[in-house]
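Sample entry (417 residues):
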Amino acid sequence: AEVGGRPCRAMQPTVHAGRYIYFRIDDSFKWADSMLVEVEVEYFDHAGGSFTIEYDGSDPNAPFSGAYTRAGKTVSLTGSGTWKTATFRLPGARFLNGQNAGTDFRLAIQAPAFHVARVEVRRLGVPAEAGETVPGRQASLESLAPPDWVVLPGEGPPPVVRKGVLSLSGGDPPARLCFPTALFHGTGEELLARVRVRGLQGTETGAGALGVGGDEGKPWVARLEWVVGPERGWRLSAEAAGASAFQARTWLPNTWYWMRFRYTWQEVGGYPDVWVRLWRADGETIEPVTWDLTLDLAGLAPPPEGWLALEAPLAGDAVLETDFLFVRAANESAVTVRLPPLPPAWIELDPPVPVPDGGLRLTLEGAPRSAYLIERTADFVQWEPAPLMTDLLGRAHWLDAAAPGRRWAFYRAREAN
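Predicted structure, serialized as tokens:
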């Protein structure tokens, strides 16, 4: 049709109350099992009625396994006689063609007339590579065995992989896990990683690092370190060049961040430059266009090939974790980048500790400034909840003063609804 001077699509009226316009999304867009997407709808504002979006969600307990999950927003038609734009956010979208005719979402319309000119679907808070086919190499986290990985042991526990998450625990000297790559050709190679630090006690001096180097055992060409202490932030340094840059930033433990590390050579002089930027991996924060930290490594002669490496935190309880590592390089074969679903925040309940005045003290580790419950029972039938709020380190404490009067008690922790 053509309405208000624009070509568009018209909803056809039927004898039924429900009227729909269906959409099927190309499979290349579906980069994860569950996504947060934004849908923008340009519609003509007729008089009377409303519309919303019903989409293929990820709640298996909902009718039709969530295939017709309703968006949390309904738009009323006011009769202004103009083209308008409405934006919907769809959390937990899976888009598995679960709706009629193998579609992924639909406009659900309660109106006698409706016209739509444009519908745009955007993935929020993910790197541009997600779902794209680009030249590069993705590190496998299923096994840390050679030749894909080289482990340089330290004093701490060895690296472990659990449910797709690679963990490096503290030690002095710290362990280093190396992934051989064909970097350092000066064509704008990039390292993309999703990382977090957990288990902070507030006394650590370093919470781990990620960087690129020549080969195992040699100094870093450049490394990014998570700094803990009075000036928490990130430090980008180049040991061989004696250069470093620091950004004071209150990053949060037990919180996932994206990190992009770019490496190239200057046309004049042939010296390498490195750039780094970091942003929250919460599915909503958009990747910034500027770089947080940069280094001009004048005078440094980099090796023609090398590796990227993860370095464990220094001695302490901190743990550096990653669930995604991807090296983008023009000389690599093309691969389709598939992001794993974002792992949930780590929740841990330390064993109860007796206190001098009686009772048991319990410590919970979770996401910073988040609500949790510690629940107590003696029979696994009745559970008594104690609400808690974690601090900036993601920790909270609770005293069970009545514990001495009980023969036994069992405890568990969970997120508050």
